[in-house]
């Protein structure tokens, strides 16, 4: 490797280090899904049980509401076990997963397209602002992508061995399985992706290797089922909750699909995704159909299938960008490969200049958006998390705390002397009995709960950013 290559790689890694760690405890601020996963991880670390604490020593199973599996939960629980409970401890494993994704981006592209294109792929990832909004919080998207891309890299190595290496078959399937076990979204998309891929490659993959690949994939998924649903009743309850939650909608499926589809032509983030996906498809399709040259690997084909199926699944969903975030990240790999193929196959210098300007322009635009315009902007002032951390640090373990639909903030409390009422949906309820106690030392929630359930005159209101904490007056005589 040339000295300039090494210098460029070190510079990009230092940039990655800065961007990933920059204000990671402040941006983004904690929210409900992260609160659920940190709560589950905390109780696993403290009590050896995955669930939501509704009272000291009382843990209710989180199987119905926790949509991230053990590869994420166990990682965060281990951090809590080693370093104690807090937001930076919760997000530390996420930083590691983000770095891992950067390295996998580099090695996956380098193996096929060379060092410069590998660096370009990493820069596309680092300049993508949702990478930080979805990567720093405790949630399953980035960990799932890490295992998926690791599986793709091992699949690529397996492909290079003409699909005739048992260890690569096993470990590629194992990595894909860990991705599926990290978040149900990956399981739902990976199953048809891998089935279609195996059907296409059925003539080059023998039975023994296929069994090893399938066994590797199924092992983490089976473990996830047993860890997530310790008994059959919890599994039935989860299925029932899923059906109920997805049937309550005033919008028809056709109208929803139409609305989401239009967004890919009218909104900036989906539109850019669609542009890169279509461009990548037509580049590979042109050379494959008209010149009979296959410039894509089968590992890239697996990624392409995953992206397309993720996009199709998103069209039926509630128009949350996070649901097609995995596809949005992976499309950068496809675009990078496609544009490198054009660069190598086209000899005209003018067209090469256009390709170069387009690639650099996209990267510059994304960095500009990241620094100045995004929710993760360098210029954005956010101290919500630090205010919460400071406020909760003053609450000792001898004081009782009641969290009313404020699960996102439980990670800031360093002890477990707390009660909780939590309604993640209209059809699920945790800790209903906690509402009967009217003499908590602290209450975390909004003004509405104070007006309905508690004697407002017995509490003084403390504002921690947008969160309200009510502290009980020591000489209050109310019952």
Q: Tell me the strand percentage band.
A: 5-15%
Query: Which structural class should the secondary elements be placed in?
Result: alpha/beta
The global form is globular
Element-by-element helix/strand order: HHEEHHHHHHHHHHHHHHHEEEEHEE
Low-pLDDT residue spans: 244-248
Radius of gyration: 24 Å
Counting DSSP H or I runs of 4 or more residues, the number of helices is 18
Helix content: 55-70%
Largest sheet: 6 strands, mixed
- Indicate the mean pLDDT: 91
Describe the strand arrangement of the main beta sheet, using strand numbers.
Answer: 5-4-3-6-8-7
The count of DSSP E runs of length 2 or more, i.e. the number of strands, is 8
In whole angstroms, the N-to-C terminal distance is 75 Å
């Amino acid at each position: 490797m040339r000295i300039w290559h090494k210098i460029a790689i070190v510079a990009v890694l230092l940039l990655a280090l800065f961007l990933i760690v920059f204000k990671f405890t402040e941006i983004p601020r904690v929210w409900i899904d992260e609160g659920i996963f940190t709560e589950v991880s905390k109780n696993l670390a403290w009590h050896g049980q995955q669930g939501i604490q509704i009272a000291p020593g009382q843990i209710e199973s989180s199987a119905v509401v926790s949509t991230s599996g053990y590869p994420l939960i166990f990682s965060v629980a281990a951090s809590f076990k080693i370093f104690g409970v807090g937001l930076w401890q919760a997000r530390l494993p996420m930083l590691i997963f983000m770095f891992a994704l950067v390295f996998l981006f580099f090695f996956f592209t380098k193996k096929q397209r060379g060092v410069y294109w590998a660096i370009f792929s990493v820069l596309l990832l680092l300049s993508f602002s949702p990478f930080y909004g979805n990567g720093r919080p405790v949630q399953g998207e980035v960990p799932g992508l890490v295992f998926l891309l690791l599986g793709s890299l091992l699949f690529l190595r397996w492909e290079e061995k003409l699909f005739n290496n048992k260890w690569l078959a096993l470990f590629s399937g194992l990595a894909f399985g860990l991705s599926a076990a990290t978040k149900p979204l990956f399981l739902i998309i990976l199953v048809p992706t891998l089935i279609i891929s195996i059907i296409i490659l059925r003539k080059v993959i023998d039975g023994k290797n296929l069994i090893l690949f399938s066994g590797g994939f199924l092992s983490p998924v089976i473990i996830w089922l047993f860890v997530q649903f310790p008994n059959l009743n919890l599994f039935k309850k989860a299925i029932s909750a899923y059906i109920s939650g997805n049937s309550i909608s005033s919008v028809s499926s056709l109208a929803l699909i139409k609305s989401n589809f239009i967004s890919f032509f009218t909104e900036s983030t989906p539109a850019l995704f669609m542009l890169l996906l279509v461009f990548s498809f037509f580049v590979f399709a042109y050379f494959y159909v008209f010149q009979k040259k296959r410039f894509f690997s089968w590992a890239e084909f697996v990624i392409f299938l995953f992206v397309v199926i993720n996009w199709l699944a998103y069209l039926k969903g509630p128009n949350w960008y996070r649901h097609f975030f995995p596809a949005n990240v992976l499309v950068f790999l496809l675009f990078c490969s496609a544009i490198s193929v054009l660069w190598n196959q086209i000899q005209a210098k003018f067209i090469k200049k256009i390709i170069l300007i387009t690639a650099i322009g996209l990267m510059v635009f994304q960095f500009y958006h990241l620094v100045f315009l995004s929710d993760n902007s360098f210029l954005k002032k956010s101290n919500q998390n630090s205010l919460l951390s400071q406020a909760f640090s003053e609450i000792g373990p001898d004081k009782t705390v009641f969290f009313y639909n404020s699960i996102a903030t439980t990670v800031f409390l360093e002890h477990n002397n707390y009660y909780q009422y939590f309604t993640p949906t209209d059809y699920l309820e945790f800790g209903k009995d906690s509402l009967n106690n009217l003499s908590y030392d602290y209450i975390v929630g909004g003004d509405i709960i104070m007006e309905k359930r508690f004697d407002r005159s017995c509490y003084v209101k403390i504002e921690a950013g947008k969160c309200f904490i009510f502290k009980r007056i020591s000489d209050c005589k109310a019952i």
